[in-house]
Amino acid sequence: QVHLVQSGGGLVQPGGSLSLSCAVSGRTFSGGVVAWFRQPPGKEREYVACIRSGGHTYYDDSVKGRFTMSRDNAKITSYLQMNSLKLEDTAVYYCAVGNVILSQIRRSESYNTWGQGTQVTVSS
After folding, report:
1. Is residue 30 packed enough to be buried (19+ CB in 10 Å), middle (13-18) or exposed (0-12)?
2. Whole-angstrom Cα distance, residue 6 to residue 1?
3. What's the rounded Cα separation, in Å, for the pair 24 and 114?
């Protein structure tokens, strides 16, 4: 069974940077998709980015050019580097994994394992 443990996040001023990590434990997860979602206060969970096993990344337009997702060579940890943060990036961020086809990567229902969530607050 796969378990995800998130770390990182916190409080930052607009324009600042934060990073998140998502460590996979239980077994090596090398063949699927790792994704990040976020849930802003009072809103639904929304897709942020994902990375497929071959390393291709796909970003929501709202974070494209500011966020960078990566995964390490052993494919046991995924990272989300967030730069030029905006007030609207404030949310609880979740990582998720699953064997997801490309057309379904933006749907939270496609992922079967989730991290515990971590708060990211952008505030002046």
Report:
1. exposed
2. 17
3. 10
Q: Which residue has the tokens 């699953």?
A: 98
Return the residue matching tokens 């979602």: 37
Check whether 27 has a pLDDT greater than 70.
no
Are 31 and 75 in contact by the 8 Å Cβ rule? The answer is: no
> Tens digits of per-residue pLDDT, 47-88?
999 999 888 999 999 999 999 999 886 768 899 999 999 999
- DSSP structural state of residue 29: -
Cα distances from 80 to residues 34, 42, 58, 66, 75, in angstroms, run 11, 23, 12, 10, 14
pLDDT, position 73:
61
Which residue, 111, 119, 116, 117, is CA-closest to 29? Answer: 111
* Cα R_g (the chain), whole angstroms: 13
